[in-house]
Amino acid sequence: MNQNVFIELINPFKDKVFRLAKRLLTSTEEAEDATQEVMVKLWNKKENLSDYNNVEAVAMTMTKNYCLDQLKSKRAGNLKIVHNNYTDREPLLDKKLEDSNSLEWVEKIINQLPEQLQILIQLRDVEQYEFEEIAKIVNMNETAIRVALSRARKKIRESMLNTHGYGIQ
Amino acid sequence: MEFNKIEDILEKYFQGETTIAEEKELKEYFSSPNVAQHLEQYKPMFGYFSQVKEQKSTQEIPLQTKKRNVAWLSIAASAVVLLGIGSYFYVSEKNTPPVVAQSELGTYDNPEEALAATQKALALLSSNVNVGIESVQYIKEYEESKNKIFKQ
Predict the structure, then answer these.
(1) Which of the pair, A123 or B38, is modelled with greater confidence?
(2) Pfam families recorded for this chain (chain A) (predicted)?
């Protein structure tokens, strides 16, 4: 497999990988790094890629695992202390009210969900993967995914309704 | 009306029961300008999903082919060096025996014996020549198929 063939293979899902990484890592730079990392890993495995019948699912799984590892190592490091100082929910709520941009605000709500739910929202509501594909990526069964997704969606709705006066813009 | 149907789908959506097609319908409905007032609150949610999907990675992905070439080059170079050393020893080894063997070059007084010995020597030689030819043909075969694949 040469470079051009490889680029063509990854092009359809390269941005999906980036968006999943951005969902989990928040920063664009880190998401770019993660995308690069995953693609280079795939490239190094290029001789075996034909063994996988769904390279995209493999790439998404790799992205998910890579980002979760990144988050874990970040939390294990110094950042944890810094992070804990600011995990208090109250200032976030205040900020929410200040947010004029409603879409940014949805993003903040989603970012407060547990990572597993964030992944599911990203895969289903943003990328519109079928449940079957999501099951492959996150290694869960479809029923569990539906239940978790329902929980995530309800949480988003709840957070949105909690801010009064919202919706009348 | 339209929004009754949307409400139904919305209910299913929060139960995690909707299909991709139904979710698309929701996204379309909430991106249209005439959203029913009591459903207005869901607009940013679906708007956000659509907006996020537009994000694209802008970075080039560096595929390290050069590194690999360097690795192959060093393997090839070391093979050449080994071959050089090998052939040097092979040649020098070949050069030494004649000095010893010079004195042992037997002569035959009997012509028949001489003939038999000559034939034996020639047979040995010819069989070794054939071995050489075989391997040359093998290389030729390889060259042909290589040319078939990489039409240059």
Answers:
(1) A123
(2) Sigma70_r2, Sigma70_r4_2
Name the pLDDT band for B111 (thresholds 50, 70, 90).
Answer: confident
Q: What is the CATH number of the domain that holds A154?
A: 1.10.10.10
Cβ–Cβ below 8 Å for A149 and B52:
no
Interface contact flag, A149 B16, Cβ < 8 Å: yes
Residue B60 covered by a domain: no
Query: Taking CB atoms and an 8 Å limit, are B51 and A43 in contact across chains?
Result: no
**Residue A169 belongs to a domain:** no
Spatial separation of the C-alpha atoms in residues B151 and B148, rounded to whole Å: 6
- Domain assignment present for residue B24? The answer is yes
Give the 3-state DSSP-derived string for chain B, with helices as H, strands as E and coil as C.
CHHHHHHHHHHHHHCCCCCHHHHHHHHHHHHCCCCCHHHHHHHHHHHHHHHHCCCCCCCCCCCCHHHHHHHHHHHHHHHHHHHHHHHHHHHHHHHHHHHHHHHHCCCCCCHHHHHHHHHHHHHHHHHHHHHHHHHHHHHHHHHHHHHHHCCC
Query: Is residue B62 domain-resident?
Result: no
Residue pairs between chains A and B whose CB atoms are closer than 8 Å: 94
Which of A79, A109, A141 terminates a domain? The answer is A79
User: Could you tell me if residue A168 is inside a domain?
Assistant: no
For residues B95 and A159, which has the higher predicted lDDT (pLDDT)? A159
Q: Is the dihedral of CA A147, A152, A157, A159 positive or negative?
A: positive
Q: Per residue in A9-65, pLDDT tens?
A: 888 899 999 999 999 998 889 999 999 999 999 998 888 887 787 889 999 999 999
Range of the domain at B112: 108-152
